[in-house]
Write a sequence for this structure.
C-alpha cells in the first residue's frame, strides 16, 4: 500500500472516531490519540520529504502548521471536564477543524504529491507508515492504581475551574 492510500485509510478512522466522540465524550481520548499519532507519522513519512520539494514546500509547511493548531485545540479540550454540558462544543470545534484539514489534504496535497514523488518511493514510505502505525497504536499503557484515581477525583476542582484538576495535590 502506498503512503497516500495508507493516509486516506487512516483519515477514515479519524472521521469515524470524531463521529463516535460526538455521540459519546468518553471516545474523545481515542480520537485525540489517533489524531496525534497520525500527525507524527504523516510528518515523518510524508511532509518531511514533501517540504524539500520546491513546488510543494508551501503547502507542506501550511499543513504541518495546521497540525500544530489541531494539537492546541486538543490540549484545550483535554483541560475541559468530560462531563461538562459544553464539552461536546469542544469536540465539535476539534472535529470541524480536523475535517477541513483532512479534506484539503485529500483534495489538493495528496494529488500534488503523486505528481512529484515516484510511485516506488510512495510505496516504500507506505510500508514504513504502516509499520509505525501498528507499533504506535497498539501500545497498551498500564492503568494507574484505583486508589490513586480515587484520590485524584476527590481532589479535583469544581467544574467552574475547567483547568484546575487538582493533580498537583497528589503526593
Ligand atoms: Fe495532516
Ligand atoms: Fe492526514
Amino acid at each position: 500500500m502506498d503512503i497516500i492510500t495508507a493516509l486516506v485509510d487512516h483519515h477514515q478512522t479519524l472521521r469515524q472516531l470524531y463521529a463516535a466522540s460526538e455521540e459519546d465524550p468518553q471516545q474523545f481520548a481515542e480520537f485525540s490519540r489517533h489524531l496525534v499519532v497520525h500527525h507524527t507519522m504523516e510528518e515523518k513519512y510524508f511532509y518531511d520529504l514533501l517540504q524539500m520539494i520546491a513546488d510543494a514546500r508551501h503547502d507542506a509547511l501550511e499543513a504541518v502548521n495546521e497540525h500544530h493548531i489541531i494539537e492546541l485545540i486538543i490540549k484545550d479540550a483535554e483541560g475541559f471536564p468530560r462531563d461538562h454540558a459544553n464539552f461536546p462544543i469542544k469536540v465539535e470545534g476539534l472535529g470541524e477543524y480536523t475535517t477541513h484539514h483532512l479534506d484539503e489534504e485529500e483534495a489538493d496535497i495528496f494529488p500534488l504529491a503523486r505528481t512529484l514523488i515516484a510511485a516506488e518511493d510512495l510505496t516504500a514510505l507506505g510500508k514504513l507508515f504502516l509499520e509505525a502505525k501498528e507499533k504506535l497504536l497498539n501500545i497498551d499503557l498500564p492503568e494507574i492504581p484505583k486508589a490513586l484515581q480515587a484520590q485524584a477525583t476527590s481532589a479535583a476542582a469544581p467544574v467552574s475551574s475547567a483547568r484546575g484538576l487538582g493533580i498537583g495535590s497528589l503526593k
Summary: The chain has a mean pLDDT of 90. Residues 3-140 form one domain.
